[in-house]
Design brief:
This protein has about 350 residues and is of the alpha+beta class. The protein contains 9 helices and 11 strands. About 5% of the residues have low confidence. It is about 45% helix and about 25% strand. Helix 1 packs antiparallel against helix 2 and helix 7 packs parallel to helix 9.
Length: about 350
């Protein structure tokens, strides 16, 4: 697109909306993984789980109670990792009267983490199935986790992390899964179409960059946002790997009980991940503020409604594209943050231009 936005922009806008709808439909309704038939852990009793005095196993259910919000209580179990690259963790959980402290990492949760040959738990990789922060009735939870090649074991851990109340768990299973071929083919085909559409959109912008420097700014900021969008989750949290030594240094068992310290160290990494999570949200907003500002300058001669529609379409599409990134999922809240960013950036530039005109 140039400083005078060409009419084919409407066609490009429609193409983006169609691709976004197709992507959401694919990831929303078609299963990405299928079971291999290899059961790593079958539902059963919790007799093989290690736990402290605050946890009781009654046949097919495990109950964790905590009255001290300054403690971490729970249970854990290690299982042999399968040869498959992915496993699906399923469990039914119920929480009662959970009261949180001041930290957002607190609450009741179920974790599944890989353990490397050195015995280090890979808290730097995605490992949280769910986190309950209030009273919830029985509900089933399921998620797929990647298994690194250098991981002979998997660690399952249920805990109340510095939160009082009761957490109950039953029907816990871990099953080896593999990516569905049909889903993979459709996903890669859609990704190719997204790339072609992106180049189609960028071409007129690149042509107009000489005449309108702000168009070059739109390209640079837009490409930077797209790169961040496709960055794997493990790369985004690579900074947390530096804290592994801190993790092991501060690890401690549940209230002095016999349960291993590895589970107690999980909140340390999770709190760091939450800190990064906040920085990530701020980055979402500021990058889209910048995009809105430079786009409003580049397309100031165009109809403002059309410019805003295009900016909002881009803000939503970047979130849809996270379906294609490793370990990333689109969030409606992030899309709202993106939209707020482009609107704020556009509004600031518009206010500045009106102020200049009034001074003249």
């Amino acid at each position: 697109m140039s400083a005078t936005m060409p009419r084919p922009v409407v066609i490009r806008l429609i193409a983006v909306i169609v691709l976004a709808a197709a992507s959401l439909a694919l990831y929303g309704f078609m299963p990405a993984y299928r079971d291999t038939g290899v059961t790593v852990l079958a539902p059963g009793d919790f007799g093989a789980w290690s736990h402290d005095a605050s946890t009781s196993a009654n046949g097919g259910a495990l109950t964790i109670r905590n009255a001290d919000t300054g403690r971490i209580v729970g249970a854990e179990r290690r299982v042999k990792a399968p040869f498959a690259r992915y496993v699906r963790l399923r469990a039914e959980l119920r929480s009662s009267d959970v009261i949180l402290g001041a930290n957002a990492a607190q609450g009741g949760r179920l974790l599944l983490a890989a353990v490397d040959f050195a015995g280090h738990v890979r808290w730097d990789l995605p490992h949280v199935l769910t986190q309950l922060k209030d009273s919830r009735d029985w509900a089933a939870y399921s998620a797929v986790f990647a298994v690194p090649e250098a991981a002979p074991e998997l660690l399952l851990a249920a805990q109340l992390h510095r939160a009082s109340g009761t957490l109950e768990m039953r029907n816990v299973s871990v099953i080896a899964v593999t990516p569905d071929r049909a889903f993979t083919l459709l996903s890669r085909s859609l990704l190719v179409l997204w790339i072609v559409c992106g180049l189609w959109i960028l071409f007129p912008l690149a042509v107009s960059a000489r005449a309108e420097p702000a168009s070059a700014g739109v390209i640079l900021v837009g490409v930077a946002i797209l790169i961040a969008t496709q960055m794997p989750d493990t790369d985004k949290t690579a900074l947390l790997q530096i804290m592994r030594d801190v993790e092991h240094a501060v690890a401690r068992p549940f209230g002095g009980a016999s349960v291993g310290a590895t589970v107690a160290s999980a909140p340390v990494m999770h709190e760091l991940a939450l800190m990064w999570h906040g920085i990530d949200k701020l980055g979402h907003f500021l990058m889209h503020v910048l995009l809105g500002a430079v786009a409003w300058l580049a397309f100031r001669r165009e109809h403002p409604v059309l410019v805003l529609v295009c900016l909002l379409a881009f803000a939503g599409s970047t979130e849809v594209l996270q379906n294609f990134a490793i370990g990333r999922d689109p969030l409606l809240s992030d899309a709202a943050i993106n939209a707020a960013g482009v609107l704020a950036g556009s509004a600031m530039v518009e206010a500045w231009m009106r102020f200049r005109r009034s001074r003249r």
